[in-house]
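MOLECULE: protein
FOLLOWS: sequence and fold
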Amino acid sequence: MSLTTNGTIDWKTSQFYLNFNGNKLSTDFESSGLKMFKIKCLTETLPTLTVLKVRYPFLYNNYEWSCPNDVKTIEYGNIITNKRYKMDENFIHLWTCFHVQQKVIKIIEDFKLRILHNMRTIYPETNIMALKLKINKLHCLIIPTTKQMDFINLSRGLIPIELVFILGNAGCLLQNAWIIISENLNKLLKQFYQEIWIPRCKQLNDREKAVGITQEHKKRGNFKINLLNLTFPIIRYLNEVNKSAILHCDNDL
């Protein structure tokens, strides 16, 4: 809501980006997959643990399901140990986790360099050094934190007016600015997918296997209790037939 009231987002450019398919004349599986990934980033519905806890509360039901990365801690003054990073994993945390900070820096720098390269190729007369200085000052290309999320909004496909404005001031036609931004934002998202999202998914899969969670458990209607993954106590109900106590878990727990 604040992005709309503040007038910081160029909605026409954002719409163009969401539908941008490069130079392809038809839609293929790669383009469809990228479009789906864009929508999930825009709506923050990538299956992070915050989302999974809502979808499958009977599986991801304890505090251990946090950021899958480990952090080095010093205990008793001099003992270095690796412990779980006790931070909720949501879309913002995917970009701000200390574990991926260097990768995020590289992704941002690559995005800047590609834009400068495109501008130099299309408009050879452009003052690249002056444009580089202006791009480096953009809020949307600052390393993201929980308080500075302009870049995270850019990664969701919410393109700020300031980025389009700077390219326009450098002599770039509006249509070309749309293409340059959309093309490079597609590459940024693919980089994020390969370097951050896929390794994270592999880590989560390893954790799920360790406690016996499979795809079968995630099918609709499957509320089987996994004892290895249980934090809440199992409720024992009296069986009316043989008066014995049986293990049970309410669906609305």
Notes: Confidence is low (pLDDT under 50) at residues 233-237, 245-253. The longest strand covers residues 70-75.
